[in-house]
Give the backbone structure.
Amino acid sequence: MTEQNLAEKPSVEVAELPVSFDWSGLWEGIRQSLGVAAAVFSYGLVFGVLARQAGLSMAEALLMSSLVFAGASQITVLGLWAIPLPVLPIILTTLVVNLRHLLMGASLSRWFLQIPGWKRYLSLFFLTDESWALTMSQFNRGKRNGAFLLGSGFTIFAAWLGATGLGRLAGNVLQNPAKWGLDFAFLGIFLALLTGMYKGKTNLLPWLVAAAVALLASWWLPGKWYILLGGLAGSLTGAFSDDH
């Protein structure tokens, strides 16, 4: 059965295809993520610079990027960084910003529950917005290799960690990331990913609802709740549209 034929089948039938996990998927994930990793590297530099300005040592900055590995929450938390360290606000902020990973994980579950435990959890450690979007595009086209997420995520992880170190090291030179246009990289990469995921007019309603709810929540609610609420609103709208 060709990829074109797979695309013409109902989504439920395609979702039931077996999921593999091998080197070919890993390398494909790496290959397709190189361009994304370059963009991630650019705003990883921003985090490294801001980490230096917040007083984090090289080891602390690299440790945060290795264990947390979540750019939006890391940059947000730097705004709270102070002595003594406000541990509870930092934990709550990180939780709120990263709750969207529940939605991303749920969307992958029908495929990744078929993968053995250690491979599944290793892949999901490297789950990011970018690796999720690329993996979903692959799976929606009928390609079912779970190692794609691992290859994609690890490539982005390496770029993020390398950029953190370089940004922390070169913080004196890049004191104002906006001057170099690095602040636009985060927005630019998501616009590109959205373009790649667009499948037709059926996408427009969930995307518009998500954007509207996120904007309203950002105006009326404190903190980063708009990220979670926009994602939930878009997901529920998409699910309701699919059922009707």
